[in-house]
Amino acid sequence: MSRPPGLRSGAFEGRCALPCQRLERFRRRCGLAAGLYALTIAGASALCAATSFLLAGSSFLLAGASLAQDASPATAAPAGLPEGAAVVARVNERDEGESSTRQVRMTLEDKRGHQRVRETVFVRRFFDEEKRMAIFYESPSNVKGTAFLTYDYGQVDREDDQWLYLPALRRARRISASDRGDYFLGTDLTYEDIKNETRISIGDYDWRTVEEVEVDGHRCLRVEGVPRTEQISRELGYGRVQVDVDAEIWIVRASEYWDRADRHLKTSQVGDIRQVDGIWTPHRIEVRNHRSGHQTTFEVSGVDYATPIDEGVFQVGSLRRGPP
User: Fold this and answer.
1) d(CA 293, CA 257)
2) Terminus of the chain with fewer CB atoms < 10 Å: N or C?
3) What pairing do the DSSP bridges indicate for beta strands 147-152 and 130-139?
4) What are the pLDDT tens digits along the chain (324 aa)?
């Protein structure tokens, strides 16, 4: 590049160098800013990563605490008392004899005190783990000939079978699982309650021991059952039940029932428990419905555990013939 006329050599080189120096300072400043920006971005990314790690750790700890809480036994019994499921198992293991026959008088009383009386015969027999029971109505005349048959298979994964024979129709109607919570022929017990007799359902409920109580002077274990599923609750008509079990002879002495809205529904009291052929047997059961004011009293007599019952009695086709 040629030097302009009249300009000294040093001055020319100085003026040419000035823009280059300014350009270099600008480049360095830009580079510094870019570096700071990169460092800032990198720092922010690291901070976000650390925050995410801390949040993940917190979530893990919270999840672990939740799992630990869930894993704790919700059905744990108070200190020194057996678990609810163990209490129920003891009740269901109690000796009831291989077969039995008994007369049962049912007195149905409405809230105004009007009474109706039903005379019936209950027969029951065990076939290994399967229990079959039939109920025959003998009086009054308007219900005479009515019969009920149930097969309790004793298996959680298998539905029981139930039939109701109505003489006016001359045929037996099958009771579906969805109907087992219906009340049995005007009484305050459901079809399921009747089928269970003195036993407690272990497949429909989750049981927990609540406390030790005294019922009519007897030491009892109070257990509470909650239906295992919403469907079971709908079928049974109960939201929860509470049962007082005699801790000496392992028989139910009292029960309380709540509906699906957790309103107190009914109370069952078991009395006059006596031994027949060495087997503890309830002779009186009173069930009061707190919603309707209705009450049913079951009075048991003529209990026979010794006489065998023919298998043919427990056939659907035999219901129309009446009791053995």
Assistant:
1) 14
2) N
3) antiparallel
4) 444 444 444 443 444 344 444 434 434 444 434 443 333 334 444 433 434 443 344 443 333 434 334 433 445 788 889 999 999 999 999 999 999 999 999 999 999 999 999 999 999 999 988 999 999 999 999 999 999 999 999 887 788 999 999 999 999 999 998 899 999 999 999 999 999 999 999 999 999 999 999 999 999 999 999 999 999 999 999 999 999 999 999 999 999 999 999 999 999 999 999 999 999 999 999 999 999 999 999 999 999 999 999 999 999 999 999 998
Give yes or no: residues 215 and 147 share one domain.
yes
Residue 125 and residue 32 share a domain:
no
Say if 215 falls within a structural domain.
Answer: yes
Let me know if residue 71 belongs to a domain: no
**Same domain membership, residue 240 and residue 122:** yes
Same domain, 276 and 186: yes
Same domain, 162 and 27: no
Compute the distance between CA of residue 122 and CA of residue 133 in angstroms, rounded to an integer: 7
> Is the pTM for the entire model greater than 0.90?
no
Residues 54 and 93 in one domain: no
Do 248 and 111 sit in the same domain of this protein? yes
Provide the residue range defining the domain that includes 32.
10-58
Query: Is 78 among the domain residues?
Result: no
Task: Write out the two tokens for 42.
Answer: 């990198």
Cα→Cα distances 219→81, 244, 248, 254, 268, Å: 12, 9, 8, 12, 17
Q: What is the DSSP string of 128-155?
A: TTEEEEEEEEEESTTTTT-EEEEEE---
pLDDT for the residue numbered 312 = 96
Number of domains in the chain: 2
